[in-house]
Structures are given as structure tokens and as C-alpha cells.
Write a structure and sequence with these properties.
Layout: H1 7-13, H2 20-28, E1 32-34, E2 37-38, E3 50-55, E4 58-64, E5 81-83, H3 87-100, H4 113-123
Antiparallel strand pairs: 1-2, 1-3, 3-4, 4-5
Helix pairs in contact: 1-2
Length: 126
């Protein structure tokens, strides 16, 4: 039988956060939910739970398959959680990354007429 593990420790163990402290802070800020309810770091996840992790601008969804308190290798993560994030959420991330390619360096002034036309055409404002 698996021994109970806190949600912050589980999030760290399955590599959703780099440190356990970060996982704890995200729980305290209300960015981790189970079944739509914001959870405290001490909450015990169960297999079958749907965990949502909000990392702006995307809300990732994971289904708990098994419980572990020890950090697992990247190749073994699929044995403990299943990524069920909807494709629409991932599309938001892709669009955000494309938009960042048009960021201008600070202090470079206003865009030239050519740059403005390219930006307008990319955004669909033809």
C-alpha cells in the first residue's frame, strides 16, 4: 500500500515544479486545484484526481495515476501522472510565443513603416 504524500511533494516528485518550495508557494497562491477546489500544500492526492496547475497564460491539467514521494526520472513521470491539458490551452501558449517574436528591444524607437506593415499583416489588421 502507498503511504500518503502531500500534494506539494507529489508535484515536485513528478517534475511539475523544480523545487518543493515552488510547489508549496503555488498551492498557497491558489494556483493548484483538485476537482475545481483550491488546495493547501498539505492536501493528499489520490489516484484518479484531476489536478489543474495554472502557469500563466495556460492552465495545465494532469490526472494522478500513482502516488510517489521520491523524485522520479523524466522518463518515469508517465507512470505517475497523465497530461490531459486541452489542446486549446496549448494553442494559447503557442500564440503567445509567436507574439513574443515581435517584441522590440527597449530604446529602439518607433517601428519603421515597413516593420509596422509586417506587424499589422501578422495580426490580421490588413
Amino acid at each position: 500500500m502507498e503511504e500518503p504524500v502531500r500534494i506539494d511533494k507529489w508535484l515536485w516528485a513528478v517534475r511539475l515544479f523544480k523545487t518543493r518550495t515552488l510547489a508549496t508557494e503555488e498551492c498557497k497562491k491558489g494556483r493548484i486545484t483538485i476537482e475545481g477546489i483550491s488546495v493547501k500544500p498539505s492536501r493528499i492526492p489520490k489516484p484518479g484526481d484531476i489536478i489543474k496547475v495554472r502557469k500563466n497564460p495556460v492552465t495545465y491539467s494532469y490526472k494522478v495515476i500513482a502516488i510517489t514521494g521520491k523524485r522520479v526520472g523524466a522518463k518515469l513521470v508517465n507512470e505517475f501522472c497523465l497530461d490531459i491539458t486541452p489542446p486549446e490551452e496549448l494553442k494559447i501558449l503557442e500564440i503567445r510565443q509567436q507574439m513574443s517574436s515581435f517584441d522590440r528591444d527597449r530604446g529602439t524607437g518607433r517601428p519603421t513603416k515597413k516593420e509596422r506593415r509586417e506587424l499589422d499583416s501578422f495580426q490580421g489588421w490588413d
